[in-house]
Amino acid sequence: MRMIDKVYNILLDLEIKNKSGVSAIEISKKLDLDRSTISRYLNLLYKDKKINKMDGRPVLYKSIKNNTVIPFTTKTSNISNSLDKLAGAKQSLSIPIEKAKAAIIYPPKGLHTLLLGETGVGKSLFAEQMYEYAKDVDVLDDNAPFIRFNCADYANNPSLLTAQIFGVKRGAFTGADSDKEGLLKQADNGVLFLDEIHRLTPEGQEMLFTYIDKGFFRPLGETAKNIYVNVRIIAATTEDPDSYLLQTFSRRIPMVIRLPSLSERSLEERYFLIESFIREESRRIGKSIYINRNSIISFLLYDCPNNIGQLKSDIQLSCAKAFLNYKANINNYLIINQGDIPNHVRKGLLYLNEYRNEVNELLSSTYDVLKYSEIEEPPLRLIHEEENISEDFYNIIENKIDSLKISGMDESDINEILNIDIESHFQKYIGEISERYKKEEINKVVSTSVLNLVEEILILAQKNLNIDYDERIYFGLSFHLERSIERIKNGEKIYNPKLNFIRINYEDEFIFAMKIAKLIDRKFGIETPVDEIGYLAMFFSSEYFRDRKEEKPKIKIIVAMHGRTTASSMVEVVNTLIGTEFVVALDMPLSMKPQIMYEITKNCVQEIHRGRGIILMVDMGSLTNFGHMITEETGIEVRTVDMVSTLMVLDIARKAFMGYAIDEIFDPIIMSHGSYVKNPRKENVILAACFTGDGLAKGIEDLVVNRINSKNIRIITMNIVDEIKPEDRILQMENRYNILAIISAVDIHVGLIPFISAIDIFSKGGEEILDDIIAESEMYDKIWDSLKDHLKYLNSDLIIKDLKYLLNGIEKKLNFRIGKDVKMGIALHICFMIDNLLSGEKTREFENLENFKSIYSNEVNIVRKEFMILKDNYEVEISDNEIAYIVKLFIENNICV
Amino acid sequence: MYNILLVCSAGMSTSLLVTKMQNAAKDKGIEANINAIAESDLKNSTEGVDVLLLGPQVRYMLSKVRTLMEPKGVPVDVINSVDYGTMNGTKVLDQAISLISGK
């Protein structure tokens, strides 16, 4: 005899004595097998519909005598009735439940009901519970039948389907060789649950409606006799209630109840569902099931289109996997980890940010692992973190480890679990502390020696790791060190489960933490263990502290002026008025060489820059050019304001101190300050450079002057042996001149200024290049002359220079060649386009823009990128529509094949 | 009465030139109907035109437009780029009239 049959037989034996049912323990005693094994067999029997089980502690089982129909003979022992036990009874199901109750008790015979809802929302369960409720309130007898029939089962045999429900008279159709009672008759004085009712044939529908309206029906083939029954129909369907079919149904069936989909239910409801399913599995397996927090979150949040049914089977699958690991002795206890849950479920964790607050509220944000057991209820919240954040961090970890050990987990698993949220906990711990304590108060809790040490550490950290730390880390680290030093002194153990992770991922911080540890050891005469060094590294590594800075760094201001004390006395006044040492003064005694002052200024800029730019306020002379040069050399945005006054410095410093952006500060100065009126038109020059400025450069000059005749282009010769690099000087010159080309024996490349090597210029090809440059310059000059009065919003002087670079840049990048006259046309097109855009006019739409963009995506990308300069310089949005026109002009006019 | 049509890309840059040409025509006492259109509108706008001038940036259309228009006796050419760049209405008007009378 198979064991399962033995269990069944024992149950039948015991049932005679215990009319209320038999528990697993009773059977296990009889068979001398452990209870969980028996539970498993009982569950199998239950699944096979051989026995029934009754809720309660302990769970009692009863055999089912009649196997053909499944009457629910369970007697509910609970105070609250069946419907109210459904998850979400007080929330999303409250209205459906009210309606269901009304349908059951509606006099005299209740109302037939149509249940609507997506696949898996729990329509069957709901129907069963309606039946249970009907018994609870004595509308139905305790032994009233509940018959379930799925219309889809016979969907491809319509006459058989109808016959199943209504019965058939012998000879009604081929194969009907005897009278057969239908389910409707079998369900008399009970409930007939017809699932997937939309599969019913029109004929079957009509018969059903006849019963609903008149209370009788005729079996197939029966012509004379009406059969009267008293059956409550509960029909269910997944169909859209607006479909034609369902409109008929909902018109004929008086009570329509729509059950919400899983996504319409609250997280709390979903949690209860998960909980009850896991507990069910626990009961099935006969063992407690642990589940880690992330897995619970995944189940709470994953996209579950097939609703509760899917949720349940996904949970069952996960439990089965975990059970496998447990059986294979991979785990000593049955725990569901992320690895056990299906991939699509795991993705639920990705939504955590969206629902973090709700989830934390639901899971109390306090425990790592949940335990569900068939015995214990409510679920044991295994590991509690103290809410009191001022509690010793180590104690929290230690308590966790202890409680996990008590529950029988081994060390590697404990680490795994602790890893789950140690980082977030750590950050929370630090973050909350800083909010709770003001700096003045910290001294009351942390000793001065520790505070001094922390200050020292933070200065070192800034130097070594090149990171600014804010107040929160100051607080956090102070608290942390106060306790850890105490702990080390007392010889208590420090344990860091993330140590290896930190070592690997935050190498720099870890090395730095080791240095710090030495410092601490020396100061306090202790020996910092490596686990503690790991914690220290976490302080310096945590992105958290950098990201959440409340205040953005500010723009820094430097005042540099001629004279021994001019700048510093002006700055002194300003800083006194602002109330903080905010502005930096650089004095330039008259004896100081500009080059030295430049270096001083540059170093100062680099030192104080905090990513938002520098405003350099100067009086006159060479100082006015420093800003540009420093930007070019260091990449730091430096804006210069010249001819400054104390009032100006005060105004700008105040704004910078309040966190204004550089443009916000700068614009009003240009407006109100005379020295920033629009530059007059710049002189066209060609630079000829050689080492001395007298040799080769002079030769070049002679040659070029001949070529350019009387045109308004001047040649400037320059030496390239100077303390300031020629590139910097040329940049400086760009403020005053429109530099057409650089001709030199040595390569000098500045921005997009064309460079011609001195050797080339004396050959034929070089002359042509030069001629081109000159002709181009003349062309643009002409455009400028003609446009200056006609562009409404655009400063034509600026745009011409930009256009020249822009068009040449595009030509180069696309590897195209465009005729000079065409280029002129394109230049004009762009001028007017930008002017139009600035005046708010729309460019007409490019035909088949998307199509064009996909064919010429490469060209569009290149042109779009080149236009970034214009976009920035003129603060104008240039859309793909505009870009497409320009790309087209380039493509169509390309003469280089 | 001359009917002069200018063509450019997206109708961006020719409208100013039209104004300048109209002024030049007025000064010279020449009756002229001068219009500017975008390249994409060309097909529907050539009715009754005496001369068609292209902006230098749409030079690529020249041969296409010529084969289209010259059988109808309408001369087509590209505007001199210096005149175009300098928005020289007088010179472009001269160019248009000489094209018409040269046919």
TrEMBL record, chain A:
Domain of life of the native organism: Bacteria
Domain PTS EIIA type-4: 554-685
Domain Sigma-54 factor interaction: 86-320
Coiled-coil ranges per UniProt: none
GO-annotated molecular function: ATP binding; DNA binding; kinase activity
Name this protein carries in UniProt: Sigma 54-interacting transcriptional regulator
Keyword Transferase: yes
Matching PANTHER family: PSP OPERON TRANSCRIPTIONAL ACTIVATOR (PTHR32071:SF38), TRANSCRIPTIONAL REGULATORY PROTEIN (PTHR32071)
InterPro entries documented for this protein: AAA+_ATPase, P-loop_NTPase, PRD, PRD_sf, PTS_EIIA_man-typ, PTS_EIIA_man-typ_sf, PTS_IIA_man, Sigma_54_int
Alphabetic keyword roster: ATP-binding, DNA-binding, Kinase, Nucleotide-binding, Transferase
Pfam families for this protein: EIIA-man, PRD, Sigma54_activat
Keyword Nucleotide-binding assigned: yes
Any one of the GO CC terms: membrane
Domain PRD: 445-550, 794-897
Gene3D superfamilies from the UniProt entry: P-loop containing nucleotide triphosphate hydrolases, Phosphotransferase system, mannose-type IIA component, PRD domain
GO-annotated biological processes: phosphoenolpyruvate-dependent sugar phosphotransferase system; regulation of DNA-templated transcription
From TrEMBL, chain B:
Top-level taxon of origin: Bacteria
One BP term from GO: phosphoenolpyruvate-dependent sugar phosphotransferase system
Location of the PTS EIIB type-3 domain: 1-103
Any one GO molecular-function label of the UniProt entry: protein-N(PI)-phosphohistidine-sugar phosphotransferase activity
Keywords, in A-Z order: Kinase, Phosphoprotein, Phosphotransferase system, Sugar transport, Transferase, Transport
Annotated positions of the Phosphocysteine modification: 8
Presence of the UniProt keyword ATP-binding in the record: no
Full protein name: PTS sugar transporter subunit IIB
Taxon lineage: Bacteria, Bacillati, Bacillota, Tissierellia, Tissierellales
